Amino acid sequence: MSTLEDVWKEIDSCSFCKSESNQLQHILGAGETKNPELMIVFINPTARNISSHRGWKGLRFPFIGRKRPWDIFEKAEWIDKNLLQEINTNENNWSYEFTQKVLDYLKDRKLYLTNIVKCTGSDARLPTISKINSQLHLFHKELELVNPKLIVSFGLLPTQALLKQDVKMSELYRETTKSRQPKFYDCTVNRKKYKVFPCYYPIGRGNPKRALDMIGYLNSYLSNQ
Pairing between strand 111-115 and 192-199? Predict the structure, then answer.
């Protein structure tokens, strides 16, 4: 696999989805694909993403037709208020043209959004370890091709999959707020090291307040580099 298109083709032929008769489309990574400033990594998509539905023929990437994640991204200063207002106006009614506009915005901001697991679940259940492991080599290839300067890993499962170690978010949060500095970990894939910033999951079952606190320290650090 020498291109992201090759990775997407293999993902779309996923044996798990075939065996489970999953009719939902996979959600792929998208944004700036050449050395973005940030690769923002979640665990897996759900059917609330309207591009996962079989009738959708346009771009597929995280959080199309959603509202809450983009609200968090605005609070994290990754998108501006004008784009958020447009997203809120278009909630559940994204056109293919508006989807392209959001993608172009991500590219301009040098952001890349993705999930460790690309299979869409019908609900918010987390993927099994076997499903994560079955797709991890594809995520590693995606990571190599995109080659981000920094990875933001949201939640325990993406963090564990990347780092192959347990990171206690409560301890990391205390350490971060005490030092007022972000803590980075190294992720090694095919002998190349990538810098990872683990963070609380910022939506729903996670801890949005603590996630935004940690991102605030990250933003301060990056602005001084």
Answer: unpaired
Q: Give tens-digit pLDDT for 133-153.
A: 889 999 999 999 999 999 999
Q: pTM of the prediction? A: 0.95
Q: Residue 73: how many CB atoms within 10 A of its CB?
A: 23
175 Cβ contact partners less than 8 Å away, ≥ 6 residues apart: 183
Contact (Cβ atoms closer than 8 angstroms) between residue 159 and residue 40: no
Q: What are the domain boundaries of the chain? A: 4-223
Contact between residue 135 and residue 27 where contact means Cβ atoms under 8 Å apart: no
- DSSP single-letter state for residue 196: E
Q: What backbone torsions phi and psi does residue 65 show, to the nearest 5 degrees?
A: 85, 5
The fold of 4-223 is: Uracil-DNA Glycosylase, subunit E (3.40.470)
DSSP helix/strand/coil, 37: coil
